[in-house]
Specification:
Blueprint (H helix, E strand, L loop, with lengths): L2 E7 L5 H5 L6 E4 H11 L16 H7 L3 H24 L6 E6 L4 H10 L4 E8 L3 H11 L10 H24 L4 E3 L4
Parallel strand pairs: 1-3, 1-4, 2-3, 4-5
Helix pairs in contact: 2-4, 4-7, 6-7
Amino acid sequence: MKEYILIGGAPLVGKSTIVFNYHDYIHVSTDDIRSLMQNLYEPESNEDLFYGYQLNAEQFYDKYKSAQKVFELEKKQAEETQKGVEALIKSDFNWNKILIEGIAITPEFVRKLEKSYSQIKFQTIFLYDNNKERIKKRLFSRGLYDYANKYPDELKFIELEWVILYNAYFKTEAEKYGFKIINVDDL
């Protein structure tokens, strides 16, 4: 039986860090799936998938000024990316242990996968971080839109707000769909 580990959570919550505990699994990031999909389509064919495509950080945050707007657009882009995740699962590769992580792994999407692919064992991990100072420290040292030193710090405050919105979203959705969600303080 195929085994999938699905790890979902907001940006900067530590999804990629957890991956190192599963060295015998093939690791696929939803960021990589999204990038592959963007190479298959033209930007005009799917606005949600390409909403910030080829914009630098200043252009992006000039166009999308509020954290709420970016959060909503990120959710739409995640929904488009889920089509690529599902295509990967449908492909029935000869891999038995696959780990897929990213913000596109949402509680609602996992419930859909469980219903559609009952022959596959899905293990799910959802993470959230409600420590604003820790998120801010990661964001300012690492960056989110790009490397931290490549764009102005004032833009990182908008990112901080939409990452906080995303954390609250994952916590609420996990509870709604009956999934355990782990606060990174408990890791």
